[in-house]
Amino acid sequence: MPEPQKTVTEHFVAPVLEDQGRAGIENQVDAKPSNLWRDAWKSLRKNPIFIISALLMLFVLFVVAFPGVFTSASPNSNCMLSNANGSPTDGHPLGFTNQGCDIYARVVHGARASVLVGFGATMGVLVLGVIVGGLAGFFGGWVDAIISRVMDIFFAIPLILGAIVLMSVPVMRQNAGIVTLAIVLTVFGWPQMARITRSAVLEVRHAEFITAARSLGMGKLSILFKHVLPNAAGPIIVIATISLGIFIVAEATLSFLGIGLPPSMLSWGHDISAAQPQLRTNPEALLWPSLMLSVTVLSFMMLGDALRDALDPKGRTQ
């Protein structure tokens, strides 16, 4: 009988290109690992709103720090009634107020008080709100219940109304100033920051790296401040930037009503209030401080919106 034929199976293997394989591995090794902050920075650099708002913010901060670069005129000492409601002249490009003061000098020097109050209140709200909200979100239970009820009480009090009531107290009026007004705004402005922090901490506290930190024997407070809060910083930074603009507006509003900064201290709110009766006869005295206030607040609001879009991973992937 004839022997059965054997079937031979041939295997084909694609040639390995050592150079290409090595290059791919090297590219993977050299590539920097992606994270939230690096991706956010890449997004911000391409966002024209962020660039414009950041430039405006830096310009305002430069005016606050170095007003002498922009004007050598004194906002108070050179006031002459003979120049009351006067038109722009050489060295006085924006004209004069009803008291004969240089509008341009007052707008430049008035930026400092408004911005310092905004920064002071923002820092106070940031410290108090992050600590209180972080404790509520991380520990939960009765700690969260008590803090949440306290936040609800303060949420029921409008920021401006609460500041008006507290600044009307004689002791507060006698000690009115940048620090006093910043403390008052902090007292009624921290619940929003605390609520945002609490929500951010609730999203992070059950993550795997938190469980690993617990298994390594780290204390609760150490985990909260070293691991939880740094990873929940995105929304906190956004709300802090937006709150800065809100507090600048609050200072101008209170000074406009006559219960904010003392009259001896330059402020955009004071200038807007003083120029209101001359709206028809000398609108420039009201226009320029209002415009500077609007540009400053708009820059911080736009910056907060750009940061919110960049620090929201869901928003970037849509």
In short:
This protein is an all-alpha fold. Helix content is 69%, strand content 0%.
Task: Outline the structure in words.
The protein is mainly α. It contains 14 helices and no strands. The protein has helices at residues 18-30, 36-45, 48-65, 103-139, 141-155, 159-167, 170-174, 178-204, 208-215, 220-231, 233-257, 268-275, 284-310, 313-317. The longest helix has 37 residues, at 103-139.
Number of strands: 0
**Order of helix and strand elements from N to C terminus:** HHHHHHHHHHHHHH
Mean pLDDT: 81
The portion of residues forming beta strands comes to under 5%
Estimated radius of gyration: 29 Å
The geometry reads as elongated
Quote the distance from N terminus to C terminus: 73 Å
